[in-house]
Specification:
It contains 2 helices and 7 strands; from the N terminus they run αβββββαββ. It is mainly beta and 137 residues long. It has a single domain, classed as OB fold (Dihydrolipoamide Acetyltransferase, E2P) (Beta Barrel), CATH 2.40.50. The strands form 2 sheets. A 5-stranded mixed beta barrel has the order 2-3-5-7-6. The longest helix has 10 residues.
């Protein structure tokens, strides 16, 4: 049974390019020193979170477990150097359904990671709205 679950999971070691669709949000999380509440003095940690259209699972990293599915991914907009165009695009697409192409995925393993999977964004575009199933009359 574990093999069947692993086959359906994203293998972050074997995948150069990843593609996800979902709704983009921008949230402020509490950071150091206590990771509890910004209003009580914790640093602000802004993050882009993609809520997936459907849950997925991932393997290929010590911090990922094939038996756990998730529906949120933290998007990392900057690799070695900031990309201002990408940052503007992310801000413009908050609240919308998007398609994200990324790479260098890994599992959350610190208090600064705010979703089970983190992905470096290579490109993000608006995605068509999801179609509702037809209603029976």
């Amino acid at each position: 049974m574990a093999c069947a679950a692993n086959a359906a999971c994203i293998d972050v070691k074997q995948t150069d390019r990843l593609s996800f669709q979902g709704t983009l949000s921008h949230k402020i999380f509490p950071g150091p020193p206590n990771f509890e509440d910004v209003r009580k003095g914790d640093a602000r940690e802004p993050a882009y979170i993609l809520t997936l259209d459907a849950p997925v699972c991932a393997v290929g990293d010590d911090f990922l477990n094939a038996s756990e599915s998730f529906d949120r991914i933290q998007l990392l907009p900057n690799d070695a150097r900031p990309d201002r165009a990408l940052s503007r695009k992310l801000r413009r697409l908050v609240g919308k359904r998007v398609s994200v192409q990324g790479a260098s995925a890994f599992g959350a393993h610190t208090g600064h990671h705010h979703a089970p999977l983190l992905v470096s964004v290579k490109n993000i575009t608006a995605a068509p709205a999801r179609r509702s199933p037809p209603r029976l009359k």
